[in-house]
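Q: Can someone sanity-check these two? First one:
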Amino acid sequence: MTSADPPSVRLVQLSAAAFTALAAGDLATADELSPVPLTGYFAGPDWASVWRRRAAQLTTQPGDAGWITRVIWDPTRRAAVGRAGFHGSPDGDGMVEIGYAVAPAWRRRGYARAAFEQLLSRARAEPAVRTVRVTISPTNTASQALALPYGFVLVGEQEDDEDGLELVYELATDQLRA
């Protein structure tokens, strides 16, 4: 892979038990439960709230398992480089929201874009999905540079309990390029 080639990634599903272990900072248990080896960053404080939220979600909404946060896995390097997925299955209006993050050591290598494109492809292929949403901090220019070229349109803003002010962007699935 040259620096110009996009990385090949696979989005790997985790169990509720793996999410719980990661939320508790228990890398050893999470590694035993994960289909791919994880790094300490996954079990660190930066992503703990995401893992807690996903573990709780699977308890109350087990049908979301196929939609929510997954490990971004680089099979060439055999490395877990980040997380990406939807916040849940499509809501009553057919909307799904994308979330993603790449561990600092793996940023600026195309992993977020590769995962984002897989999620967009999944949304486009699912008849129940009519709208894809992404929320981005106004100061997160990297995420804006990733999402906006796909045609996402600013539809509003919201205050997130953890992340503060977020701009809300949406795109109808019939506007997604193939």
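And here is the second, same format, sequence then tokens:
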Amino acid sequence: MAIKPPSDIVLDVARSADPARLNVAVRKLTEAGSRTGATDFAADLAALAGDKNAVAGFANIRAHLPVATPTTGTASPGAQKTAKEFEAVLLQKSIEVMLPNSSKIYGKGNAGSIWKSMLAQELANQLVNRGGIGLASYVATYIDQKAAAVAATTATDTSQKTGNS
């Protein structure tokens, strides 16, 4: 008997999920893309887990952070992509810690851990795609400045070696 890991993991999660909570999660994920009727998904997850304080302030994370000066367009495309990926990984780890630890939401065992990690990753990617927390713009600028400094140092070293020969 062969196993199919992706489908087996999904089936394991689906079997261990409470149908009522699964329906709420599916409805909220469906609503997430539309502006009308969308509610605070993080608060709903916390309420389902029975912990109303688990994600306090998480829904309005941007309101608690200083406004970042956008540098979009000034950094190279490669630096912007790398910076966004870095911000997504950082946010994924942060979000994963903030999500409630509940087998009622994600399921039990490894499947539940994987499901929680995948949820955190998708939330982080969506957050970064919608502007993130502003870290990517600073990181992209920093990457370009470091690349320019290395290029200048390399050019200086090359010209000194050529001049000394």
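A (reply): Looked at the second one. Residues 5-164 form one domain. The two ends are 70 Å apart (CA to CA).
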